[in-house]
Amino acid sequence: MRDDDPAVGDLSESAVLARILSRVGAAPEAIVGPGDDAAVLRDAGPVVATTDTLVHGPDFRLAWSSGFDLGWKAAAVNLADIAAMGARPTALLVALTMPDDTRIGFVEALAEGLRAACDSLAPGCAVAGGDLTVSPTLTVAVTALGSLDGRPAVRRSEARAGDTVALAGDAGVAARGLAVLFDRFRDAAGTPVAVDRSLLDAAEQTALDRQLRPEPPLAAGVAAARAGATAMMDVSDGLALDAGRLAAASGVGLDLDTEMIGGDPRWSISGGEDHALLATFPPGDRLPSAFRPIGRVRAADGVPVRVDGRPHRGRGGWDPYRDWDAQRG
Amino acid sequence: MRDDDPAVGDLSESAVLARILSRVGAAPEAIVGPGDDAAVLRDAGPVVATTDTLVHGPDFRLAWSSGFDLGWKAAAVNLADIAAMGARPTALLVALTMPDDTRIGFVEALAEGLRAACDSLAPGCAVAGGDLTVSPTLTVAVTALGSLDGRPAVRRSEARAGDTVALAGDAGVAARGLAVLFDRFRDAAGTPVAVDRSLLDAAEQTALDRQLRPEPPLAAGVAAARAGATAMMDVSDGLALDAGRLAAASGVGLDLDTEMIGGDPRWSISGGEDHALLATFPPGDRLPSAFRPIGRVRAADGVPVRVDGRPHRGRGGWDPYRDWDAQRG
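Structure tokens for the assembled complex are given below, as produced in the milestone run.
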């Protein structure tokens, strides 16, 4: 027992909550914040809402992610889904399920990571409510809410043949960071061990940072909506795979160009978790500054996605967590 | 392996999702429903939002709860928090974390339970989005959203001395049902066993039903708001305990009368999970039909809650799950 960092099971729920609330900051969009039955958010037109859960084992390992990293990532991946609708994130609800022996210092760092991600990626958005539950498995379920401020939502289903395909953000960097973790920071038995950054070169360190604390270009979502994007989605599972989903939803085909995408094509086409924004714009329109053109929308012809002229086949990503013993590390 | 009921780990995520979506029905308040990055809800003024997670072990046992029960309860407990703000539930987001060997039939029943609870307790509300993740521990994290339709939220902090304290719904019935489960449906080693309803009398069967599929009087929440309720909350942890929270938030004291509450005081004062609505109304005002008077608000005097004239002390509830091996059943 470490007296300076008690376990959550040794504290009352209200004590744990107080430690969290003092760290997540106030939610400017909340008329009613934490402490009542539910949060109440200011009226700002139609509400955009999404939820995504990070589970210890399949989605992260405590040997590799700090509490701050986990809070940041849980916020960032949900904020990206709001941005991908062309909306402005307004508030998060955070449901934590934690083993009794989770250290309060870890929970505090997680709260700080949630706040830092909001402040950095979506200023004005903050935690407005949540829930704490005991569980054998640590999970962070975040619901993000957003406002369209009177604009229509940018769906993934309205891309048209001739549109420019554009990308804001990294492609494949976070996936390279995941490979660094799996390749370099496991012991002989395959169990994750703590990261020693001094063993990594600058590119590897950047990739690791993006894997643990992704930095999706969230403001680009609203910018794309304002610029008339016809379709948009966030790239969570890999560019080619997600492009195929956009193509299917819109009933079109997409041609992508690896040189325009940039980076190493071994990562940029199939790597997920960067949460870049993939969007389509009417042909000839000037793109918002965060976006670079990476291809063209064409009529459907049975091949959803071509990369450098060749049909893209297969899932397009790998998911080492899923193929790996979920109980270790 | 049961071919007629495959495990979720043997199906693709999209196949699992399709089975769920065919069962949860359409969400009438959703402009954009499942299938995009986020749901978009019709503009209906300030948004009320809450989240609550049910975790296998601490919150439910599969030996006792069917998939349908679990879906129903996960919806009901969240819908109650929306109603307790005086709001009309509009949509649910549902994040499931499930072991790979979870049967698809269980997941389908869970989806049907979510829909049935919405249809029965909050018509017009439905599932508008969600998330699926693999986890060693089955959890159901629901976010409920609601609309105030132009009314202010009814908080728990505005009760005034002289107000009538009123209750809509059961007090202690669900807790009695939990005791039935713990007392009658565990084997000699304490492990949960399947419920045999034929062993129960009518009152026990009702109590069991309310524990597994609570029926909070959700329409009473909007009725209370319209009638001018000064404060309101849902009773999730026990009447006296939650009354103490309302008293603390409002800076007042509450006097409760067990005869007016009704039922067996051994359960009605301390039993949780009925998700009844506890509200206060200006003195002399006619109560909405779902509410019965159960006491009076008085000025704060150092005793938050008196029951039949005697100070209520202690937590006021018991939580057998928490004191019990979380790995069994």
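The longest strand of chain A covers residues 88-98. Residues 323-329 of chain A have pLDDT under 50 and may be disordered. Further analysis is deferred to the final report.
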